[in-house]
Model the fold of this input.
Amino acid sequence: MNRNLIIINLTIILLLAVAYISGYYFLNYLLEFNFRYSLKESGFEYFPAILAVTALITYLVSNLSIKNLSFKAKFLRIYPILNSIILLFFIISFGTELIKKQKELSEKETEYGLQAQKDIQNDQVTLSYAGGFSIPSYNKSTLSKIRDIRKKYGVIYTNTGCIIDPIDLKAQKKYTEIVNPYLEKRNGKGWEDKMQKEIDGLK
Done:
């Protein structure tokens, strides 16, 4: 009996550890899952403290008289119950956050989809890219010519800065999925290379 209780305790602790680490991914939905990175960023060093607190509570309760059970028997029964409650709390918390993130993503995808249709009608597509604030390598006259070339191909490029919102980045793909076929139909295959050659010819 005690052997089975020990196995149950270890299984619940393992599930609790997995839930704790996975929680970082759910709280930062759409980031590529990386176990080592999630382990580091989840603050796993605090995980033993959770087990210590539930063990302390279990220790105190196990000292009470319950059905004439031994201290060990009471501890092995109460400890998994407390850890299961913590596990359930993690699942509900992270699950709620995941649903919230998915809803936010869906709303942003709809927003980008509508914007894509509007930009196609206006024949002026905006392609966003993430990055820092780079120092311009062209003078104002050349930059104006570059803008004219891009306008000819029906595109505007905008830098969203170095701060990346994973949900917004994912939602932007919806925009790209809609405008890419339009741009290829408008400008022909390999239009980006042709456009870049024209820009390079300004140097």
